[in-house]
From TrEMBL:
This is OTU deubiquitinase with linear linkage specificity like. Pfam families: Peptidase_C101. It is found in: Cytoplasm. InterPro entries: FAM105, OTULINL.
Amino acid sequence: MAARRSPPQERERQRPRASAAGNDQVHSWTLVTSQALDTTWRVAKGSVTLAVSFLVGTLCYFRRLHLYLGHRLKRWIGYLQRRFKRNLSVEAEVDLLSHCAREWKGETPHAKLMRKAYEELFWRRHIKCVRQVRRDNYNTLRSVLFQIFSQGLSFPSWMKEKDIAKLPEKLLFSQGCNWIQQYSFGPEKYTGSNVFGKLRKCVELLKAQWTEFSGIKDYHKRGSMCNILFSDAILEYQLYEALKFIMLYQVTEAYEQMKTEKAIPSLFRLLFTRETSSDPLSFMMNHLNSVGDTCGLEQIDMFVLGYSLEVKIKVFRLFRFNSRDFEVCYPEESLREWPEVSLLTENDCHYHIPVF
């Protein structure tokens, strides 16, 4: 019979077995944990990848949306700016010397002369700003009428005595001026029997607007209303055609008085000595009908404009600096109580509004 093994020896034989079983159990738990972690990581990685992809897609979408909306907004703002800038026929005030520096940069004799002329206006005539006026063939009429309205000037005395809305019919029926049917509305070149109705609407608009502006006492309110009115091309052109007709009416009145040997202002005698304006019809056909279409007012026409509106039009002719014609007035023989409007020009073709 074999001898029984001692307990220490038995424990020594069982210890490797227990150790192997423990190692197997640890390995099993490690494997399970590793597989769980791997599975968890794959799930998390997929979720993170999906979330990142979604986030990137969302950011790309909003970026494209931002670019699209920005592009559309930019186009819309540009459209509005072009529209309002195009319609604004009298621009806001700008510094006179800054305007000069921008327009006359060269070192030619003419550029130097123009800079000296602007400095003369700034330092000695106390003109600090200028309002640029649209350079079209209504430029002179626009420059004068804008100042009449912005200053709130009242009607000329002769307009207060007559209903100017009835003047077109008066020329036809009282004075037999049937040739007025050849009147042309600037580039529209409208003629015919309906010319009287069209002229009447223009004159009625002038009367209504003039009455409204002259009744406003607040300078800033008049300025705001001028900005609105002089941004409406249709209303503007009707007002300018009314001014043209007022000039034609005054020329016709002076011509009728001259035929009866009554005294008339010398400016009308000068007008009638011109071959192209020897009577009201030739004045209309050769001069007024072209205003607003192919040309603006000539100097002698500005005398008629000032006389018709009873305003003294003072013009600073910058290109005539250092000469007696640097500052001129239309008409020269205006009455003292007539209000004054001022213009400046670089070439006798286009005028801007000086701001004192």
